[in-house]
Amino acid sequence: MELRISALSGVYVSCLSLSLLGSCSVIVVSILRRSHLSVQAKPLLQLALADFLASAVLMGTIVINFLSYDTLPVKTSEKLCNYGLPLSLTFYCISFLLVIIYAFESAYVFQGWRERAETEGFENQSLRRRRMFCLFYITVWLVPIIGYIVYVKTVTVMQATLTPPNKLITYVSSAPDTARFCDSCILFLHITNDTCPTVDPGHAEFIQVFTLTSVMTVLVCCTVVYWKLQSWYRNYKSTTMFRLSQNHPGGIWSSARYMILVIIFCWAPGLLLVSLSFASSTIRQNLFPLYVIQAMSVSLQGFLNSIVYAWRRRNFRDAVLGERMPLMAYSQKAFFDQSLNDPLGH
């Protein structure tokens, strides 16, 4: 058991390092080249920041598994784990919500800016859009953080009520291998009712529902928005304005699908793991390979988002490298419009 926990922890640390590197690179260049990135800096910076915080908190929590009982007391590691894992899921939830806002903002700009540009002026329309979505960005950060605070407070109350003070210490001395499993801080490891004295069934069930709901919501919302946007694109692509402005024969879906595939790749193993948590204990004991796959996929979200939303976008690279003027100055096309319109990797 201890060898498996160490192997899982190693997978997490290795893959999370890539996510930290990718997210940090987007954050740095978005700040340093913000005058060239213009309107795209805000959504990309926030998405990269959410992914960076999620990866950093999860890595800091996973490191606990490498520490011995002499280095870190049991009660301290238990507290850090109970605070750290839900906090990482909170930042992943914020990342999901930002992805949804990105999809809706893309649809809003792609469909609306042409129709109102002549009568209102592009700058006025862009200013009103920024004000509208600013409230969404504030809500996206505040609501999950408030939910995390409520979750942590209720976990503390439940543990103080249900867990005798000396139960865990006796458990460690009498069954070291089982205690090692109970002390291990691995995402989704204790999502079922097991024999560990530190597991709160109510909060474990909440993590299950929260994970399923969050992932399915972002998948459904993004798929519906981009699919409707693709349908709208097909209906109006024959107009003169579209013939002059659209140069991507594959349409919107050919670019948007990569954004959806990242979510599926990163969280499908986790969803399967949560679903199988309702199975019998015999089945759950044979899920180590799935835990490894899930550790790799979830840990790579920040890295893959940095590629799909930033580095593989031609307009992002050109703005960062200074090969073009600021995006809103050299073209009448909105950033989200161009992001969906430029083929990936060009």
TrEMBL record:
Entry's Gene Ontology cellular component terms: plasma membrane
Residues annotated as domain G-protein coupled receptors family 1 profile: 22-309
Keyword DNA-binding attributed: no
Superkingdom of origin: Eukaryota
Keyword terms, alphabetized: Membrane, Transmembrane, Transmembrane helix
Gene3D superfamilies given in the database record: Rhodopsin 7-helix transmembrane proteins (1.20.1070.10)
A GO term for molecular function: G protein-coupled receptor activity
PROSITE patterns: G_PROTEIN_RECEP_F1_2, PROKAR_LIPOPROTEIN
InterPro entries xrefs: GPCR_Rhodpsn_7TM
Protein name: G-protein coupled receptors family 1 profile domain-containing protein
Organism this protein belongs to: Triplophysa rosa
